[in-house]
Amino acid sequence: MAAEVTVVRIYLSEADHKHGKTLMQDILDILHEQHKVRCVTVLRGIAGIGDTGEVHAANMLRIMVDLPIIIEFFDTPEVVNSVLELLDDLLPTGHIVSWPATCR
Q: pLDDT per residue over 41-95, tens digit each?
C-alpha cells in the first residue's frame, strides 16, 4: 500500500555545534526522541563546499576533520511539518530541502 510522505534532507558540517553538542546529535534527538520519525539516515560525505565557498574534504595533513554531513528522513507530511518548525530555529536558511514522495 502506497503512502504519501515528505522527504527532508539537511546539509551540515561535522564542526557544527550548538549548546555544547554537535548539531547532528541535536537533530537526531529531535527526530528520534521527540517526534519518533520513522526513517532517518545520516550520510558522511568525503568532500563538499559550504555556504562560505570553502572546500571541506578529508586531508591527511589536517588533524581536525570537518566533513559534510547529510541527514535525510521521511514521514507523513504532518509529522515532517512539526519537525521542520523546530529545525527552522536550529539551522540557518538554505540548509533544509524537502519534497513530496510516495512510500511503497
A: 999 988 887 777 777 776 655 555 678 999 999 999 999 999 999 999 889 899 9
- Domains: count for the chain: 1
- Rounded to whole angstroms, how far apart are CA atoms 95 and 23? 12
CA distance 33 to 25: 11
Could you read off the pLDDT of 8-30 as tens digits, one per residue? 999 998 888 777 889 999 999 99
Structural domain containing residue 40: 13-68+85-91
Nearest-angstrom CA–CA distance, 2 and 22: 35
Most distant CA pair in the chain: distance in Å? Answer: 51
* Structural contact between residues 63 and 27, judged by C-beta atoms closer than 8 angstroms: no
Q: Which one, of 77, 65, 75, lies nearest residue 31 by Cα?
A: 75
Q: Smallest Cα–Cα separation from 31: which of 73, 81, 93?
A: 73
> Does a structural domain hold residue 8?
no
